[in-house]
Amino acid sequence: MTKVEINGNFHVLKKKGLSPFEMQKYGEYRRKWEEYPMQRIVDRFPIHLDIEATSACNLKCPFCITTHANFKNGLMQYGIFKTIIDEGSEKGLYSLKLNWRGEPLIHPKLPEMIAYAKGKGIVDVFMNTNAALLTEEKSRKLIDAGIDRIIISFEGYEKELYESQRVGAVFEKTVENIRRFMAVRKELKKSFPWVRIQTVMLEELKAKREEYAGFWGEFVDEVAYVDLKNEVNRIAVGESDWVCPQLWQRLTISWDGRIMPCVNDTFCNMCLGKIPEMNIERAWKSEKLEKMRGLHAEGLAHTIESCLDCPLRSAQIRKSDVVGA
Fold it and tell me: Predicted confidence band at 14 (pLDDT cuts at 50, 70, 90)?
């Protein structure tokens, strides 16, 4: 029997109660997120889209593939974004994340993109950011646009470790950006967006989880960590019964409109098509993607070149091997 593990590399350390977005239609969205991979259900449209506002980044993090790869950098055209949202709002899209390989705060129209998606009824609009560019002006615009969640990537709680991992950022400035954002939210009497601080669980932090949670838990809504995935030196892992849930949940769209089955296809090797020549529903129901789902369900994911050395797959399989040992 093949195994599906949902969000297996994500761990919450501290959380302030139930967030406002975890209600009503959000509950339906999360139910499908959990059930569809388990039951192999392919709905008419993906539950979630990862939309790359830009592939450019302002930092050079050593563990991130964007630092080491030679991607062509660009900004998603607002017209392409609207085309994506218009289709999604008509066909049952629940959620979208406004980043992939780059830093979304670089995009000058990011608040307009958020407002457009929320205006079209998308339940959960969120983004990951390193917060180094999170000025007061941007903070106010993001809150006014109606973004539901902001996930801030911040390694640890000490200057030396943080600046060694978030190369190009200044510890004190970024901490101040985050504190100011929370102060602006309070000033505006808003409960949104829900703010999570999240770290990659580096070796240096494994013995300091409580200190990390205590430092950040005083003023953000949630503190979490993700297991380190080896994106730079990808390791091939052979046959396994682990099944990637993403094939039943989501699609990824690059800044220039290319449609990928997975956020870990960082070099766009499995491109299903390109917007506007292909729409999202056609890509989601395409023969190419159906074949990938079938191979995963049969325990043959290792026969797909991009899945063979996928950092998420290799991390999850190694973790399962340790637990089962």
Answer: low
